[in-house]
Amino acid sequence: MSETSCDVVVVGLGPGGEALATRLAGAGLSVVAVEAELVGGECPYWGCIPSKMMIRAANALAEARRVDQVAGHADVQADFAPVAKRIREEATDDWDDTVAVERLLKANVTFVRGRGRIVADRTVEVDGDRYVASRGVVLNTGTTAAVPPIDGLADTPFWTNREAVSATEAPSSLVVIGGGAIGLELAQTFARFGSDVVVLEVAPRILGPEEPEASVLLTDLLTSEGLTVHAGISIDGVAHDGDRFHVTCGDQTFEAEQLLVAAGRKPRIADIGLDTIGVDGSGRSLEVDDDQRVADGLWAIGDIAGRGAFTHVSMYQAERAARSILGEDQPPYDPTFPRVTFTDPEVGAVGLTEQQARDRGMNVEVTTSDIAASSRGFVHGPGHEGLVKLVVDTDRDVVVGATVVGPSGGETVSGLAVAVRAEVPVSTLRNSIYAYPTFWRAIESTLPKPS
Ligand SMILES: Cc1cc2nc3c(=O)[nH]c(=O)nc-3n(C[C@H](O)[C@H](O)[C@H](O)COP(=O)(O)OP(=O)(O)OC[C@H]3O[C@@H](n4cnc5c(N)ncnc54)[C@H](O)[C@@H]3O)c2cc1C
Ligand SMILES: NC(=O)c1ccc[n+]([C@@H]2O[C@H](COP(=O)([O-])OP(=O)(O)OC[C@H]3O[C@@H](n4cnc5c(N)ncnc54)[C@H](O)[C@@H]3O)[C@@H](O)[C@H]2O)c1
User: Fold this and answer.
1) Which of 227, 247, 263 is the last residue of a domain?
2) Distance between CA 174 and CA 61 in Å, rounded?
3) Nearest 5°: phi and psi at 275?
4) Which ligand is in closest contact with the Cα of 308?
5) CA–CA separation, 78 vs 56, rounded Å?
6) Based on the domain organization, do 278 and 251 belong to the same domain?
7) Under 8 Å between Cβ of 6 and 32
8) Are 109 and 31 in contact (CB under 8 A)?
9) How confident is the model at residue 426 (pLDDT cuts 50, 70, 90)?
10) By residue range, what is the domain housing residue 431?
């Protein structure tokens, strides 16, 4: 057993941990970075990047299928092989992180491959070797797919996001457990590649955290594309007969070649030794302050910090933890929380939903408009469905929440992200020029009229 002294140990190198280790080493600290699997974490290898490559390919198929309505005729034959190749060769380097490790080493970070565990204050052990950090430890251990306690499920060869993005062909049929971001993005993708897809969501509607109008629109569109979406359905049991999955819900049974479990995420905090320093790791996340500090000499960033399981959140928090560790000035935490679900149409959102605003006791005015009925929606034609929803705090005359569902909805919402973040008065938004005929011009028609 060896003992190494350093300034900071980073345990887990998701996108935020990797950036933080590099930033601290660049500031002259001695940093030990510990990663059990691949440097960069879930996002580049099994999450955002491969799934968005799949979505890009699936959207190309959908656009090609719209040619008949606007530009003649296109015969479309879906083939999953090119996107599987792109994921293997361009995105993940065949799930090899050599380049990322070299980048870390070049940045003067000491890299340790292995599973880190806190064994005492500011002390992490990896395979029997100890690293003692004078300034402290940063945790960025992320999440794994949560497997719901459904009778029989654990004994079957179900897919999680990892198997889904590593697939080399689309299954003939697929049942998806969970109508959240992962479930919906992958369900639509595989359906566009020809899979017969059923989505089973236990909550009353899919995409529960977003506005109900987005859930209704998306349910209608997915259904019209040929997917079957059941919300408010309870799964009694799952079996696999060696060939096919059988998913039982009351008197209905759904059969499929593959089963994807996309029912949320489980934080990796229960078994990393937090108990040895008196920190409770039994919950859904760690409690952090605006510096990402859990306790003296301990910081947490990313999914385990419980303020949004998104790469951009993890990166933002990495910078905040860096400032805290380096004793630099810290601006207030950005409360606006932008997010995008990359279904087609995309669901872009920022700030509060109507319900969240009302729950906070705000006096709100809510307005919506139909993207399809906007000039750009009219021009766009097939695939133009969408909506804009604004939640305005009437006491302050500012937009506190916005949702844009539509083609490039995740891009269109960006102007509103700035408006919410900068608390731009609605009167200023009204007295602004919106380029014609853009999708974002629909924002102007959604603004509440002056009282
Ligand atoms: C299919 C899918 C699609 C997604 N799409 C998007 C998207 O489009 N946009 C977006 O913003 N977010 C997306 N996300 C979420 C995003 O991937 C995560 O929020 C992001 O990876 C940040 O996670 P993290 O930094 O908390 O850690 P993770 O990325 O989970 O990384 C944690 C790392 O810690 C390592 N680790 C864990 N325990 C230990 C230990 N004890 N010792 C050493 N190492 C350890 C793990 O091996 C892992 O590499 C997606 C997720 C999935 C699954
Ligand atoms: N575009 C993006 O930015 C993006 C894409 C994918 C994932 N993510 C991140 O990853 C997180 C995890 O994604 P996710 O989709 O796994 O989780 P989620 O929590 O967003 O959705 C999981 C869904 O599964 C449902 N569910 C749970 N148990 C079930 C059961 N027994 N039967 C049927 N349904 C059940 C839940 O009600 C929920 O609607 C997201 O919340 C998001 O933060 C982001």
Assistant:
1) 263
2) 19
3) -60, -25
4) 2
5) 13
6) no
7) yes
8) yes
9) very high
10) 338-446
Residues 258 and 270 in one domain: no
Tens of pLDDT, residue by residue over 365-420, are 999 999 999 999 999 999 999 999 999 999 999 999 999 999 999 999 999 999 99
Residues 233 and 150: their CA atoms lie apart, in Å, by 13
With beta carbons less than 8 A apart as the criterion, state whether 37 and 143 touch.
Answer: no
Q: Tens of pLDDT along 284-324?
A: 999 999 999 999 999 999 999 999 999 999 999 999 999 99
CATH no. for residue 440?
A: 3.30.390.30
Claim to verify: residue 351 and residue 415 sit in the same structural domain: yes
- Statement to judge: residues 120 and 190 lie in one domain: no
Find the residues whose C-beta lies inside 6 A of ligand 2: 148, 150, 177-183, 185, 200-203, 208, 235, 262-265, 309-310, 339-342
Torsion of CA 426, 429, 430, 433, to 10 degrees: 180
Quick check: helix, strand or coil at residue 3? strand
Residue 451 pLDDT: 81
Q: Whose CA is nearest to atom 53 of ligand 1?
A: 47
**Count of other CB atoms within 10 angstroms of residue 396:** 13
Is there a cis peptide before residue 450, judged by omega within 30 degrees of 0?
Answer: no
Kindly report whether the global pTM for this prediction surpasses the value 0.90.
yes
Residue 105 domain-assigned?
yes
Residue with tokens 């251990």: 141
Judge if the beta carbon of residue 310 lies within 6 A of ligand 1.
yes
| CB 162 near ligand 1, within 6 Å | no
DSSP state, residue 52:
H
Return the bridge partners of 389, or none. 368, 403
Say if 451 falls within a structural domain: no
Distance from Cα 20 to the centre of ligand 1, integer Å: 14
Is the beta carbon of 400 within 6 A of some atom in ligand 1? no
What is the DSSP secondary-structure string of 128-165?
TEEEEEEEEEEE---EEE-----BTGGGS--B-HHHHH
Q: Are 410 and 346 in contact (CB under 8 A)?
A: yes
Q: Indicate whether 80 belongs to any domain.
A: no
Number of domains present in the structure of the chain: 3
Answer for the pair 379, 447: CB distance below 8 angstroms, yes or no. Answer: no
For residues 129 and 171, state if they share a domain: no
Reference 136, options 41, 35, 31, 15; nearest CA is: 31
Among residues 210, 242, 263, the one where a domain terminates is: 263
Is 47 marked as binding a ligand? no
Question: Which two structure tokens, joined as six digits, stand for 281?
Answer: 């790791």
17 and 133 assigned to the same domain: yes
68 found inside a domain: no
What CATH number is associated with residue 178? 3.50.50.60
Q: Looking at the structure, do residues 167 and 298 belong to the same domain, yes or no?
A: no
The pLDDT, as a whole number, for residue 215 is 98
Query: Are residues 110 and 193 both part of a single domain?
Result: no
